[in-house]
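Checked the freezer inventory, then went back to the computational side. Two predictions to log before the end of the day. The first one is the construct we discussed on Monday; recording sequence and tokens without edits.
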Amino acid sequence: MIIDSQVHIWPPDRPERPLGEAGLDRTPFSYHELVAAMDTAGVDRAILVPPSFDMDRNDYVTEAVQQHPERFAIMGRVHLKGCERNLLAGWKGQPGMLGVRLTFHRDADRPWIDDGTADWFWGEAEDDRIPVMVHAPERLAVVGEIARRHPALRIIVDHMGFARATMDDETIAGADRIVALARYPNVSVKVSALPCFSTAPYPFRNLREPLRRVIAAFGPERAFWGSDITRVPDSCSYRQTVTHFTEELDFLSADDLEWIMGRGLAECLGWR
């Protein structure tokens, strides 16, 4: 069972989507296209994450789950500002909804993780047993403090905690930063979007050591493979994001791969 821990999908019909870097000029990627790509790549299931440029909407990924309940589940988005408290009480009652994904990596939302905006969320998610994926590459120490204060909250850090600028030689230092969070048993890590952080050709030999360090620190049970395929350079196929792990990383055993490629994520999120 191979489960992709992060794929963005979005439709073309969003007239209110912001222009430029955030929206309308992006080529749509539908769930129909994703199903075909998964079949070609040998991926059984995928976690759908609405892209941040799609206005924190969950309707399209919900439609995808309703059409393909055996293939997809959702880590949905919430409005951290101006939303009602107790929002998460019935969160997992929505079709395919397994948790929440939050991003703190742009100028608009980067401060929210430590300026009080998101404070209400962590306790509610812990109380309601809602796993949360977090992309906050410049606030990893804050993520660690949240994990310490909320030990029953399952936190999954995106993309090994790497920022867009964590490329090539910078990835060793990036790996060391995320390794510092491995001491919190409620923190896991997505070993995802790896081709985005290397200018080397497949199989990205310069990522071998940072990957080894991260997986050794968290263990294969807390390290979840993912493609983030809509961000991967065109020079790398969806299938190669899979074989990078299953064929090229000889420090991983068959048992390690079972956990990393799907079992660990399914158990963490309760996806039977």
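The second is the one RB wanted added to the comparison set:
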Amino acid sequence: MTTTSTTVALPEADGGWREIELSEPRGWAEHPQPFESRIAFAAAHVVADPRGENVPGAPAVVDWEATLAFRRHLFGYGLGVAEAMDTAQRNMGLDWPATQELITRSSALAREHGARIASGAGTDQLLAPAGDLDEVTRAYLEQVDFVETAGSQVIVMASRQLAAVARSAEDYLQVYSTLLAQATRPVILHWLGEMFDPQLSGYWGSTDIPTATSTFLDLINEHSAKVDGVKVSLLSADHEQELRAALPSGVRLYTGDDYNYPELIEGDGVHHSDALLGAFAAIAPAASAALTALDAGDVDRYRQEMDPTLALSRHVFGVPTYYYKTGIAFLAWLNGHQDGFVMVGGLQSARSILHLARVFELANEAQLLTNPDLAAHRLAQLFATAGLTR
């Protein structure tokens, strides 16, 4: 790869190269206060310690200074943090001891900044398959209690262990009803689709989405006082619009649709979605500018700010979608939020060099490279390591 002060050469699959122009960096305005018209969380990644044994199957070794600095970056743009979610590599390298420390540290940081935080409670401390529903319930309750004690709102994550032992919709309702009855504050329920985790296929007791949705709504309607909102990650705008119209009054829909979030957050004039998105960790400055415009009632400006980010998000979350975390960490590295492109569990290897080159290109087009020269230099290092020279 070669660079000048204005151009970068990117490799192509056929062995050739193409030149792109580096965009001028944009001076994005910070917005440390929460937004008025929408609640917005960014699901944040963790920064791996480059000196740690962050290889597949090993306990996570986290660079805590960089990890917390990234959360301060998100707070500075008015975003809450959705902590210890799948973006942070839950079930893909981040073990329960590291998760506990992450939730504790991030919750304390959020209090310091007066920022909103919600953290994932699951059942991933079970290192062997659960024996029955009671074991799953106990594991869930342990994590819910831990998150609440840390001072964070709870996000009830989808459970691989529950998916493995549940035999009917009634099994899901039994477990979740127990959780909601014992939660001390309203929670966010997270329905994570199988495109994000194939082990969650058939969640809510059916592979038929309308049938599963009916079960989900039965749970919410029965326990609406304990449900702040739902985060649905099925990547279907039509399904999300239908579901949010059916939710009981006072229950929010936090979009988890990284393919269609601009239109869903904007809304249809009757209903709108709030946001709990991994994509927002990658596009925080632009998301902040868009939501600032929406607060001011300037929908045209909202679209101008948000729409250019969509191609980047769709590429980062491309199939296989569950490897999107690699693109999030890659962008953090390009923008100087971490010193190295390494990830817990060695997940930096989950995307190809050509995929990452396209991430760079789309971030450049959206003016989301805060220091284009640094980003180009780091990209050149990555290409050289991969044996790509021009």
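For RB: The chain has one domain: 29-370. The longest helix spans residues 96-113. Let me know if you want it refolded.
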